[in-house]
Design a protein that fits this description.
By secondary structure, this protein is an alpha/beta fold. Helices cover 17% and strands 25% of the residues. The strands form 3 sheets. The protein has a 9-stranded mixed beta sheet, covered by helices on one side. Strands 1, 2, 3, 4, 12, 13 and 14 form a 7-stranded mixed beta sheet that branches. The chain has a two-stranded antiparallel sheet with strand order 15-16. Helix 4 links the parallel strand 6 and strand 7.
Length: 329
């Protein structure tokens, strides 16, 4: 059996017994030289004040953590798609980031128009699905609205060509796993996509659609993030279930990620600047992950298949309700 390359997830977290207290200005990502740095937002294109406030928070974060691109996870433009609407719902809120050279790589959501694939700021180049590479990270942008055999054949070929040594990250609009009460898990998509993810060693998957932030427990060794609250929000929509790891449905949010060699770090930040998640994630079981908390290091045990198993952490308070929303940790 091929010796699997060791990867490490180095993650920073600051959790006390009752609340998360980090501000967005408190960047806990390492900012390593030459790392791949990006953000992820979804369901943002409303043109309303909350979207602009999240965009401003992203800009403030970018000043200390200069991410170079953003994954736009669908429902990028709600309602009208005229030039004036595109200006209001995308170019104006993200203008400072665009001016700083940050690129957006979009996928289409159920509220998007297929013609958005020609919109220059989405960098889709007329394609409904596409792939690209940043250093040692392969990204696969999928169209979960129309997942036909042609797209599946393309995905399998692309995943196979990516080899076994680099990171493989897929993103699309509809989450395969979700604790959201409004939509929930996209089980039909899961039936066709998950076997490919497992077969070809996808480590991490990002989606939107559910208007909350959530990170579910690893499913078949793959970590799934939902970031669908960067403009829209369904307060109180999360329902804690067996798959729930961390969820936040109190306010809008965005996610920031850094990958350096074999290490991945992430930090999810609310519109008001609270760090709502930064914890262990990973993929497929092929890589191994180490979580490094700010308060203490975590310990890991080697598995016979060549990867490591995350140790269990038991927090004194597993969930709490605060006003209009719920945070699960």
């Amino acid at each position: 059996m091929r010796l699997m390359r060791r990867r490490t997830f180095l993650l920073a977290a600051f959790l006390n017994r009752y609340a998360l207290s980090l501000r967005a200005q408190d960047v806990i990502l390492p900012n390593k030289s030459g790392s791949v740095r990006f953000a992820a937002i979804g369901d943002m294109g409303t043109g309303e004040a909350a979207q602009y406030e999240v965009a401003q928070r992203m800009l403030q974060f970018h000043q200390q953590f200069p991410f170079t691109f953003v994954l736009a996870l669908g429902d990028n433009i709600y309602g009208g798609k005229s030039p004036a609407e595109l200006l209001k719902k995308f170019e104006m809120p993200y203008k400072p980031l665009l001016d700083a050279g940050v690129q957006f790589y979009a996928v289409l959501g159920n509220h998007d128009d297929s013609n958005e694939r020609f919109y220059k700021f989405f960098n889709m180049n007329g394609q409904q699905y596409y792939s690209y590479k940043k250093n040692n990270v392969h990204f696969f942008a999928l169209d979960s609205n129309y997942l036909d055999p042609k797209q599946l054949a393309w995905l399998e070929k692309e995943l196979g060509n990516a080899g076994t040594t680099d990171w493989k990250i897929c993103y699309f609009h509809h989450p395969l796993y979700s604790s959201g009460a409004f939509h929930g898990s996209s089980t039909e998509l899961r039936t066709v996509l998950e076997p490919l993810f497992v077969k070809y060693g996808v480590q991490v998957v990002f989606a939107g659609h559910e208007h909350v932030y959530e990170r579910v427990k690893p499913q078949k060794g793959i970590y799934y993030f939902t970031e669908g609250a960067s403009g829209e929000l369904r307060a109180g929509n999360l329902r804690k279930s067996d798959i729930t790891d961390v969820g936040y449905d109190k306010d809008r949010s965005f996610l920031s990620v850094e990958i350096s060699g074999d290490d991945l770090y992430f930090q999810a930040i609310s519109r008001t600047g609270v760090t709502v998640d930064s914890g262990p994630s990973g993929g497929q079981g092929r890589p191994s992950f180490t979580a490094a908390a700010r308060l203490f290091p975590l310990c890991f045990n080697e598995r016979s298949q060549g990867f490591r198993k995350l140790a269990q952490i038991h927090w004194a308070h597993k969930s709490w309700r605060d006003g209009h929303g719920t945070v699960f940790v």
